[in-house]
Amino acid sequence: MTGNQEILGFLKTSIGRKWVVALTGLILIAFVVVHMAGNLQMFAPTADAINRYAYLLKSNSLLLWAFRLVLLTAVAGHIWAALSLARENRVAKPVDYAVRGRKSRLHVTLASVTMVISGTVILGFVIFHLLHFTAQVVDRSYVSLETVVDGKTMHDVHRMVVQGFSKPLISGFYILAMGLLFFHLRHGAASVFQTLGIRDRNLSKVIDAGSWILAVVLFLGFSSIPVAVLLGFWKL
Ligand code: HEM
Fold this sequence. Notes:
The protein is mostly helical and 236 residues long. It has a single domain, classed as 3 helical TM bundles of succinate and fumarate reductases, CATH 1.20.1300. The chain is 75% helix and 3% strand.
């Protein structure tokens, strides 16, 4: 068997696809943590910080597109593997539960349904978010927002974010999506360790607490920005 055939064979097994969900999930978690940390520069003393940062990220287009390709592949792999597992889970569900196994099976099914629903809303959010702040097609006026930092003319990302979140409906949608991201990560981050076989009785509490803390920090970190805009923290 060639290496490629071995990989394809592994992906056909449910363990193989669980590994895909776990590893791509880790890539996506790393991205959201870094993205949140970068976004918190909104609170720096001057708007220059986040504008300089956004400018730097886009200054090498080869690196930017390589990074986007990795991110896109991770998202596609995560969705494909997770949906195929969820479908299999449903098909395999017996009509009559054995009394002993009933509770845990119901629990597993509920978790997987919740993950599919929260994941779908998060995907919808990401598509909207890309149209909003990256492609800037939701409000074309963002394109012409410019500022000068260190003698260089660049996009005024700080102003775009403040303008974007000054619409309560848009801010509300972001906060709702961050809430679903919280639920998705609280369950998902802990499951990664189970899939990779790192979870045992002693570690279990630490992993659950860690997933909880990660989900809370991300929720508060991301939501703080639309909330600050709605509270009038920055003047337009
Ligand atoms: C309040 C929360 C958030 C704010 C203020 C925010 C801000 C931004 C901004 C300003 C950009 C565009 C940067 C630029 O083109 O100059 C961006 C891009 C992006 N954001 Fe967010 N973001 C938030 C939450 C999220 C979340 C929760 C996710 C993922 C679940 C996410 C995923 C992305 C992605 C994938 C990009 C495109 C990166 C690229 O250009 O390759 N963002 N975000």
